[in-house]
Design brief:
890 residues; alpha+beta; eight-stranded mixed beta sheet; 20 helices; disordered N terminus
């Protein structure tokens, strides 16, 4: 190297030529890997293995992938080493940089591939917008670039400049490849918009070139400065400050990255129960105006209780007690038997709020003698003034209570909820036979299938069927769910996996927060309307945060949205305001359930997260993607089963309470907030069945956790019971996770060990039961890739059995996130459970579905399904049938 180059303050030639060499090597390495993976090399090699050696084949495929990837890194590293030797002063050091560069980056490639694939899979799975967002892929590849630079730079530095100076090489490599990763992510995002395979490959090669060029340029700069015996940066005060600030920023970012990575990778089992016990204590009363007819009312003082000095004294276990926490009384309570329980009612002027504060008014209360103990009194209704009720029981177990207050005569009836029969529908009977089994619930608990009312379906971004009876909202289903929340009188129990951050426009989280803010404002203005106060619980799913550099998390987002909605505190005891926020305690697996229960009376089971993606594209946030999804709302006793599932998720979760709700900066969270184990408690009014008008239709609550596989068994049973048709609206339609290796091995997923139970059931239904199957699924990102592998397998199976006409598989032309199953145009299930390996069996995520055979629900679902079906793209046109035939040698 000439003297002018050696004295240059900025080593231009080493930077330029090392950048070009490594960039070209990365692009060429990608092309080499593409060639080896896209032709018959892997398939020819694997054909010598015993086709029954499932795990051996998987191991071979993984090492084949790692080895080929490593060759690409070795090529790039060798070219970079050659450029450093030729265009800097290192040639005088007597050290060969070519083989050291090849070895270092072979290892870096080999090591980074599996974490990169896992990270890409996670990001794609949890962020369906990964192929349309301009930030997700750069963030992901930027993080991977930093990791790649740390590994490759450390190895290359140790093998060349030694232990004392290798840290400068590591710093340069992490910076260069981190920046290169950002550009690589942008080029991969551009490739996602291309339909032609050649164009996608070209974008990817350009991305790899710039990834290598920035990393190589940083290495060329670092090696040149070190071997010129000059400091890496000019020796001036400004540069020293800049370097120190840069190092501090890198260290801080590294700590955030490390903390988030540890959280991301830490597996914690959730506090879940195998058997769900209903929390219910009775049946709600129905209050009407006027005077009842046909039943004579007789006031019957009860021997087990009396009013003494303004307090209720009861006999319990042979002893007389006066529970101090009970409301007072004016006269002796009345009692009557309904079914197997004694019900006691009385008038009181006080009740206790959920916070322990006293609420005054005029109340009719009820306590029930269950298992030898009296339940905590529940409010039947508020009256217009002091009353002396009359109580009697009818021959059918009905209780009748009448009174007269300032507003005129009133009466209330209560018939204990019973659901002892068998559903009328054939498929409902199949479901009933599964969910009544003792491994899911105690024999004493009823299956809450009867006397429910189907309210509606909720659609995102809005219903599209031409003749739909549903209104459209600016925020779609988020607005319609918020309307339900606003009806709460006692409790709102809400759970979602994902709550997106604020954006400056109204977000899905804002929509719910505004409804909660309205409840809070009304409670403050009219506390007499809420004698127990209001309890709002928000449970987040603790899902993996794949953006590893962020400080804030979903808890911060919820608090920010609630603050903007006017909620200024977690607790206000004097009016009974209780806002409770928690993160599910399980991680790997986390909670994927999305549902809401209002007052133990109405429930929604949904598939949509509180994510911008479900908003219309024209939404002011600019983040809407028109992603379709749905939820189902049912009122009645089924809500008590949903409440039991909520308690299962809530109990043991990490609850958060903050002294100041508006602490603003996420880094201040630890100063104002504490966390502790959540416990499930309820006001007694929410622990009541709310029977609706009897009907011939049935509804079922289907809970799934790794310890409670009720929903799995129920869905499998109805699929196998199908006689005519199965219509699936499923974002995921995939095989087992190991089938991702199918990118290399066509025959890999033909073995039974790779086929999940829902696919087995569908294959049996189509081939053995001659059922017609329609599937509409997601076409893009990781979901689309996994779905195509399942399409390949299923088409091959039904084609081999001569039943190809029984299946019609299509990719939705729009982004979708639906999870709906319709059997024989008779039974509909809607919720969060994907046809995906992560949603079935153990280990797995938590899920929740509700099913009904109400014809209105079936019709509403079909209207929307047919609209999208007519726009969907047939999978058979994607050449998967030909590949399936080739895989079996046909």
């Amino acid at each position: 190297m000439n003297s002018s180059q050696s004295t240059s303050r900025w080593p231009t030639r080493p930077i330029l030529f090392t950048a070009l060499a490594m960039g070209a090597g990365m692009a060429a390495g990608l092309l080499l890997s593409y060639f080896l993976l896209s032709n018959q090399v892997a398939r020819s090699l694997v054909s010598v293995l015993d086709q029954q050696q499932y795990f051996l084949k998987m191991l071979f495929a993984l090492f084949f992938l790692l080895g080929i990837s490593g060759l690409g890194g070795a090529l790039a590293g060798a070219l970079a080493g050659w450029a450093i030797e030729k265009y800097s002063t290192v040639s005088a050091q007597g050290t060969s940089y070519i083989w050291r560069g090849a070895l270092s980056f072979f290892i870096a490639h080999f090591v980074i591939v599996l974490p990169a694939l896992a990270y890409a899979l996670l990001t794609s799975f949890f962020h369906p917008d990964v192929d349309v967002s301009w930030t997700r892929l750069p963030q992901m590849f930027g993080a991977l670039g930093v990791l790649y630079g740390l590994i490759g730079g450390a190895l290359f530095g140790l093998l060349t400049v030694g232990l004392r100076r290798f840290l400068w090489i590591v710093l340069a490599a992490a910076t260069g490849f981190g920046l290169g990763g950002l550009l690589l992510g942008l080029f991969i995002r551009l490739a996602a918009d291309s339909d032609a395979a050649f164009t996608r490959l070209l974008w990817a090669m350009l991305g790899m070139f710039f990834f290598g060029a920035l990393g190589g340029g940083a290495l060329g700069f670092a090696f040149s400065r070190l071997h010129d015996s000059k400091p890496l940066f000019p020796d001036s005060r400004i540069w020293r400050w800049a370097v120190n600030l840069a190092i501090a920023a890198i260290l801080f970012t590294g700590l955030v990255f490390l903390r988030n990575a540890i959280v991301l990778l830490t597996r914690v089992p959730g506090s879940l129960e195998p058997i769900l016990v209903l929390p219910t204590q009775g049946t709600a009363w129905t209050v009407s105006e006027g005077t009842p007819s046909g039943i004579g009312l007789v006031a019957e003082p009860v021997e087990q209780a009396r009013c003494e000095d303004g307090r209720v004294v009861v006999t319990q276990g042979g002893d007389e007690i006066s529970p101090r926490e009970w409301p007072g009384c004016v006269s002796d309570p009345l009692a009557a038997r309904a079914g197997d329980a004694v019900h006691m009612v009385w008038y009181s002027t006080t009740v206790e709020r959920n916070s322990g504060a006293t609420s005054t008014g005029n109340f009719l209360l009820e306590s029930i003698l269950l298992d030898g103990a009296w339940t905590y009194p529940a409010i039947i209704t508020q009256t217009g003034g002091p009353v002396q009720p009359e109580l009697s029981s009818g021959a059918n177990g009905e209780l009748l209570m009448a009174w007269n207050d300032q507003s005129g005569p009133r009466y209330a009836t209560m018939t204990p909820y019973q659901c002892d029969g068998v559903p009328e529908g054939r498929l409902a009977q199949v479901l009933y036979n599964v969910v009544r089994e003792p491994q899911w619930r105690p024999a004493s608990d009823p299956v809450t299938w009867c006397q429910n009312h189907f309210d509606r379906l909720h659609f995102t971004p809005n219903p599209k069927a031409p003749d739909t009876s549903y209104a459209s909202y600016p925020k779609g289903a988020f607005s319609s769910v918020a309307d339900l929340v606003r009806t709460a009188e006692y409790e709102v129990m809400f759970v979602t996996m994902q709550w997106d951050p604020p954006s400056g426009a109204i977000s899905p989280g804002d929509t719910l927060a505004e409804a909660i803010g309205d409840l809070y404002a009304n409670l403050q203005a009219h506390p007499e309307q809420y004698p127990r106060g209001l309890t709002v619980r928000i449970l987040l799913g603790h899902y993996p945060e794949t953006t590893l550099f962020q400080l804030a998390n979903q808890v911060d987002y919820v608090i920010t949205d609630l603050t903007a909605a006017g909620v200024d505190t977690f607790r206000k005891p004097e009016i009974g305001w209780e806002l409770q926020l928690a993160n599910f305690d399980g991680a790997w697996p986390h909670a994927h359930s999305k549902f809401v229960v209002v007052d133990g009376k109405s429930a929604v089971a949904a598939g949509f997260n509180y994510s911008y993606l479900h908003l219309p594209k024209e939404d002011p946030s600019g983040l809407g993607l028109d992603m379709t999804d749905m939820g189902i709302q049912i009122t009645g006793p089924i809500a008590q089963s949903v409440l039991a599932a909520y308690d299962d998720l809530w109990s043991g979760s990490e609850q958060v309470a903050c002294g100041r709700i508006n602490y603003r900066l996420p880094v201040l969270f630890f100063f104002f907030c504490t966390s502790f184990e959540a416990q499930a408690t309820h006001t007694p009014e929410t622990l009541r069945f709310h029977p609706q008008e009897p009907s011939p239709y049935s509804s079922f609550a289907l809970h799934h956790t790794p310890k409670h596989l009720e929903s799995d068994e129920a869905l499998l049973a109805v699929i196998l019971a199908a006689e005519d048709t199965i219509d699936l609206f499923e974002v995921n339609f995939s095989l087992e996770t190991a089938c991702v290796v199918g990118i290399l091995l066509d025959r890999f997923c033909t073995e039974e060990a790779a086929i999940p139970p829902y696919m087995e059931a569908l294959r049996t239904a189509v081939i053995d039961h001659d059922v017609k199957l329609r599937v509409m699924m997601e076409a893009t990102a990781m979901n689309g890739f996994e779905n195509r592998l399942a399409v390949r397998w299923l088409l091959g199976e039904v084609d081999a059995a001569g039943k190809l006409d029984n299946v019609d598989l299509r990719f939705n032309s729009n982004k979708m996130h639906n999870k709906g199953v319709l059997i024989d145009r008779e039974l509909l299930s809607v919720g969060s459970q994907n046809f995906h390996w992560s949603a079935w069996g153990d280990p797995s995520l938590t899920e929740y579905n509700m099913a009904t055979d109400d014809p209105r629900a079936v019709t509403d679902f079909l209207d929307e399904y047919e609209y999208w079906w007519n726009l969907a793209i047939p999978a058979q046109e994607d050449n998967w049938l030909q590949e399936a035939r080739a895989a079996r040698g046909g």
